Amino acid sequence: QVQLVESGGGLVQAGGSLRLTCAASGRTLSDYDMGWYRQAPGKEREFVATVNWSGDNTYYAGSVQGRFTISRDNAKNTVYLQMNSLKPEDTAIYYCNADPARGGLSSWGQGTQVTVSS
Prior knowledge:
By secondary structure, the chain is an all-beta fold. The chain is 0% helix and 53% strand.
């Protein structure tokens, strides 16, 4: 099973930017479709963005479309989430997810906190 560690979260003012990083170990990242999810206080975890195993296809939640960009570097076993024009409603714990491209159980990281002040 792949192990995932997120980093790059922090406190930023509205309109600012952050780049989250998800570092994978234990497996080859190119075997997985990768995604970012988030969970705000008192709310369920929600989908943010996903990129397929090769990086050719991406998909975003409507709330982040045009502001966030997901990308991956399989050679570095790393996935990124570039977040621009951040809003207070983007405040949440952000989780990295690895979903095996050929099926099987997915893996989660421990999360990184993003706080956007108004």
